[in-house]
Specification:
The structure is a single chain. This protein is of the alpha+beta class. The protein has 9 helices and 13 strands. Helix content is about 25%, strand content about 20%. Strands 2-11-7-13-5-4-3 form a 7-stranded antiparallel beta sheet. It has a 4-stranded antiparallel beta sheet with strand order 6-12-8-10, with no helix packed on it. Strand 3 and strand 4 (about 95-100) form a beta hairpin.
């Protein structure tokens, strides 16, 4: 089945039934090989597990520059007053800044860095564009986590992404420990699409960007997938990066330690997988959450 087939037949139906179900993936995780910075062994690992780690993708000096830039954004009154700045439900702390590659020229340049976009092209087998970008902040003591979810479920249901031909990169700006809310992933889960229950509320993004409730898998499915595949966690020094498939089941716990955790998060989508009308929502989400400008990076 090709991406074009999904324009007429929804092979990943979700939020349409009162019962969850598991659907075998109809598309590859790694598309026909293009040259790029990923080694053959890491590419094979990505195909099998749905993710791979690039240790020390950024140098210490680069990390410090990006960390300083991200800190400036977090105190800029113009940024904080923008709808692209998302705060925590309970603490009111800054949680994320969306479309950050357009707000920050520094991060805009990072998007087109061959070390970053080259990996996306190599995995997706095509030119790519930025579907979404953001900076995530998880302050010490009160940073809230993200419940288990597949990004593709939301992007398919609410943005109209036809196929799981997108990949995300999370670049750590702080050290990721096992105890400060590091991202957890279920390896191999990208091969199964979890169809979720519940209808999409109007303007669901306004709540889901703070705490996702609709589009999250049921506990029994999570339990069986965890027992089948296990759970792994992304840890490592600042500058390391996790690249993961859009359908990998992932989540993170809250951070009650004194050690903050922040990262730059960029989603690349194939130019051959452009967004359509949402599959399970009345209207598309705003473009700062789901970009519809498919101009290829670089």
């Amino acid at each position: 089945m090709t991406v074009m087939d999904t324009a007429t037949v929804d092979v990943y139906p979700t939020r349409t039934s009162s019962r969850p179900r598991r659907i075998d993936r109809a598309h590859p995780t790694v598309w026909p090989v293009r040259s790029g910075p990923i080694s053959p062994s890491d590419l094979a690992l990505h195909a099998r597990k749905g993710f791979h780690v690039a240790p020390r993708l950024l140098s210490s000096a680069e990390v410090q520059r990006y960390r300083d830039g991200v800190a400036r954004l977090s105190t800029d009154p113009r940024v904080l007053a923008d709808e692209r700045a998302i705060v925590e439900n309970v603490s009111g702390e800054l949680r994320s800044i969306f479309e950050v590659h357009k707000i920050s020229a520094q991060i805009g340049a990072l998007v087109s860095d061959p070390r970053v976009v080259g990996r996306a092209r190599q995995i997706l087998g095509s030119d790519v564009y930025v579907h979404q970008s953001r900076v995530n902040y998880m302050p010490g003591f009160k940073g809230a986590g993200f419940y288990w979810h597949s990004d593709f479920e939301t992007w398919h249901a609410e943005d109209g992404m036809p196929a799981p031909r997108a990949v995300s990169i999370s670049i750590a700006l702080t050290d990721n420990y096992p105890f400060n809310g590091g991202l957890m992933v279920i390896p191999g889960s990208q091969d199964t699409f979890v169809s979720c229950v519940g209808e999409t509320p109007e303007d669901n993004y306004k709540d889901s960007l703070r705490e996702q409730k609709i589009g999250t898998p049921d506990r029994e499915t999570l339990r069986s997938m965890a027992h089948e595949y296990g759970i792994e966690q992304f840890t490592g020094p600042a500058g390391s990066a996790l690249m993961f498939d859009c359908n990998v089941m992932h989540g993170s716990g809250s951070n009650i330690t004194p050690y903050p955790r922040s990262n730059i998060f960029i989603v690349f989508n194939s130019v051959e997988n452009i967004l359509e009308q949402p599959y399970a929502a009345a209207v598309p989400r705003p473009t700062f959450v789901a970009n519809r400008d498919t101009t290829p990076i670089g």
